Amino acid sequence: MTVLGIDLGTSGLKVALLDGDSLIAAAHRPLNVQRPHPGWSEQDPQAWWRALVDGLDELKACAPQALAATRGIGLSGQMHGATLLDAAGQVLRPCMLWNDGRSQAQCAELEAAWPALRSVTGNPAMAGFTAPKLLWVRENEPALFARTARVLLPKAWLRWQLTGEAVEEMSDASGTLWLDVGARRWSAEALAVCGLSVAQMPRLVEGSAPAGQVRGEWVQRWGFARPPVVAGGAGDNAAGAVAVGAVQAGDAFVSLGTSGVLWATTAGFAPNPGQGVHAFCHALPDTWHQMGVLLAAASALAWWAQVAGSDEATLLTEAAAATPSSPCWFAPYLNGERTPHNDATVRGAFAGLDAGTSRADMTLAVLDGVGYALRDAQAALAAAGTVLTGADLIGGGARSALWAQRLADILALPLHQVAHSELGGALGAARLARMALGEGLGVAAKPARLRSFEPCPDQAALQAVRHAQWRALYPDLAALPSPR
Question: Of 100, 236, 368, 392, which is the active-site residue?
């Protein structure tokens, strides 16, 4: 069965045309983030649409017959982004992204105005979530807020463009703070606190359910033999979970993408908001998950490569030849942090530098700093009752054997590189499209493990000590005045 997986990320959009899990053709288009003020992070939704149109045009040029046979489309997307539409369906302002930290003050307002927030949504108010962004708009752009007729998350806006249908699925909706996560429905109370109503929200479906058909003009442009069914799809991490078969309670993965994620599938709704653990719906019916989330993971290495005037591959090669432990430290709080600190204003740092510190030392510190932050998230999940025994690796950073081994030692967990990880959310989205067309949960099979990384006992013991030392960075950094 030929299906399309569309993955709308922060740094780029990927389209993958697949026959089952076999890749026929793929295209990628880069995206840029605008940061007009410190702590802000925005994108123009029209840039997403141009990227999708260009990507599908490329697939039509290189695989026209296979594209024509497409029966279903699945969508995966970056979460939490606030895309505001007026009554005519026009975008009112740039989308405020998941790593936009301007609404920290509104988080406190939201929790004070609705004390039941954590018990209903399963999460604390965090600046990256959608609800506090709308409070910020209401307070700072009141005329624009008054014109807001609908709020869509990024991938739901792409669905709107493709199908004309305003539909969202449970995993992405969980990250708005407007969903009753246990009941899997919009919370009228949560919306009312933000001056909104259920009528302004998209219709909810499960990620494996049909959610519209491609409109005629796009059927004609891309030569589909018949209008493909568009599945509910998934938020980026839930799509990654479907891609690696993390669909049963106890399944886990570590994602080293732009952000970092420690994921655990759960059979029920299991919140731990006090430790910054995310408790969301999975993209599959009657399934939930927990996440510990870092706002910078592989993006921290990309940032360091840019600052160092090099490329990531060169830095990793240098680091592999360096001493086993870096003599300096790195805190990866480039955009603030979620788990466990829920602090949008803290910023990152190198520490312990001296005249002998090398570039390789600093690269190792970046790799380990992300690992230590993931260990913080691991402890938060354990406090919520979820103790992991192993995990698969996904995301761009997961391709590095050096980083994978260091993470295995830091987390004291076996970690596994898996097949098809380069497709990520696009593969998960395509699998959800197959489910929407009638195939069962069996399509979400676990991929082959390509290489496993077992924690080395001596290194794991050393990294446990170093993690305890590294944790002293956060309170010192949090005490510094905001650069804004």
Answer: 236
